[in-house]
C-alpha cells in the first residue's frame, strides 16, 4: 500500500502502546501536508476544530440561558403552549431538517463556511435538551 510515495511498514510501531500512539500523532502531523504549499494541515485542522467547538458552546449557552430563564421566571400568555411545542419539537430527529437547512444555508451564502457548521444544529428547542 503506497500513499504519496510513502510505503506502509512496521517501522511506525514503536515499542509499547504509548510510543505507538505518539508516533501516530507525529505521523499525522508530518504526512498531512497541503499539496499546493507543502505546509502541514494539522494545526489548521486543530484551530478550526477549536473555533467551531467554542462557537457552538457559546451559542448554546446564550440561547439556553435566555430561553431557560424566560420559561422558568417570566409569566406570559401561552407559556405552557410554548413549552409543549418545545417538547414536541425535541422529538423530531435532526435528519428531518437536513434538506431545509441546506437550502437555507445555500440561499444566505453560508455553504462551506465554519458558520454553517456552528449553526447547523442550531434549533432553539435543542438547546434545552
UniProtKB/TrEMBL annotation:
The keyword Cell membrane applies. Keywords: Cell membrane, Membrane, Transmembrane, Transmembrane helix, Transport. It is a multi-pass membrane protein. The chain crosses the membrane at residues 50-71, 83-105. It is found in: Cell membrane. The keyword Nucleus does not apply. Signal peptide: none annotated. Its main location: membrane. It comes from the Bacteria. PANTHER family: ABC TRANSPORTER PERMEASE PROTEIN MG189-RELATED, ABC TRANSPORTER PERMEASE PROTEIN MG189-RELATED-RELATED. This is Maltose/maltodextrin ABC transporter permease protein MalG. It comes from Vibrio variabilis.
Amino acid at each position: 500500500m503506497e500513499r504519496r510515495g510513502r510505503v506502509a511498514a512496521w517501522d511506525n510501531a514503536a515499542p509499547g502502546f504509548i510510543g505507538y500512539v505518539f508516533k501516530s500523532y507525529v505521523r499525522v502531523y508530518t504526512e498531512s501536508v497541503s499539496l499546493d504549499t507543502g505546509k502541514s494541515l494539522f494545526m489548521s485542522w486543530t484551530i478550526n476544530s477549536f473555533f467551531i467547538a467554542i462557537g457552538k458552546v457559546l451559542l448554546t449557552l446564550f440561547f439556553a440561558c435566555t430561553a431557560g430563564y424566560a420559561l422558568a421566571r417570566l409569566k406570559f400568555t401561552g407559556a405552557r403552549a410554548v413549552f409543549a411545542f418545545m417538547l414536541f419539537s425535541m422529538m423530531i430527529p435532526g435528519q428531518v431538517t437536513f434538506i431545509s437547512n441546506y437550502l437555507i444555508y445555500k440561499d444566505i451564502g453560508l455553504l462551506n463556511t465554519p458558520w454553517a457548521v456552528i449553526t447547523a444544529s442550531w434549533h432553539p428547542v435543542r438547546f434545552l435538551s
